[in-house]
Each structure stands twice: as structure tokens, then as C-alpha cells.
Write a structure and sequence with these properties.
- The chain has one domain.
- Helices cover 80% and strands 0% of the residues.
- It is built from six helices and no strands.
- Helix 2 packs parallel to helix 5 and helix 4 runs antiparallel to helix 5.
Length: 115
């Protein structure tokens, strides 16, 4: 996210907090990807369209919460605002765990020449 460094700096976060913000995104994706893959192709066979829709909704929520950092800082303080931004990054990481399913879906619905 190109605004993460400036956003962290504006909220008064340290370089350590910036590292946490970057890491939790990847951690959320790492945790969510196997579970979403299991939902897509496991015994439950949840439709890819349903998973894409839920993931998109979670991305919207995560980005809205990310954008509320300054408002939360005014109401609850810097530490709470930074924690909320970290949680929003984790939420966005969970939502992007769907990318493996998206790639598999494209491979399933197209021919090799179309890719």
C-alpha cells in the first residue's frame, strides 16, 4: 500500500509498527489461503463466486476501517488508532487470501491458449 508509510508517520507510529503493519497483511493472507482453498475444493464445495463476493466485502470493510484511522485517533488516541490500522491490514490480508482461488478459477474456466 503506497500510503502506509505516510499514514503510519502521520499517526505517530514507529518503524516497528510499520513493520508490523506490513507483516500482518502477509500473515493474514498466509492464514486465510489454505482455509479458503479448503472451502473452495474441500468437502463443502463453496462456490467460487460466493467466496469472491465475501472476500470483496471483507476488502471493502478493511479499507473503510483503514481510512478511519485519523477519526479514531481524534476520539480514542494514537495507540488505539494504530491498533485499528494494524487490524484493518490483517483483515485485508485475510481477504486477499482468495488470490490462489482466483488463479485456480481462471485456470479452470479457460484453455491454455486463452491464458
Amino acid at each position: 500500500m503506497p500510503t502506509l508509510y505516510q499514514y503510519n508517520e502521520a499517526l505517530g507510529g514507529s518503524e516497528f509498527i510499520l513493520g508490523v503493519m506490513v507483516a500482518v497483511f502477509s500473515g493474514g493472507r498466509l492464514i486465510a489461503a489454505p482455509g479458503l482453498g479448503w472451502l473452495s475444493s474441500g468437502p463443502m464445495q463453496v462456490s467460487d463466486k460466493v467466496l469472491f463476493s465475501v472476500s470483496s466485502f471483507v476488502c471493502i470493510v478493511g479499507n473503510l476501517v483503514y481510512g478511519l484511522g485519523f477519526a479514531i485517533e481524534e476520539q480514542a488516541g494514537r495507540e488505539v488508532a494504530l491498533a485499528v490500522v494494524v487490524l484493518s491490514r490483517l483483515t485485508l490480508g485475510f481477504a486477499t487470501g482468495i488470490l490462489g482461488i482466483a488463479r485456480a478459477h481462471v485456470a479452470a474456466v479457460t484453455t491454455t491458449l486463452q491464458r
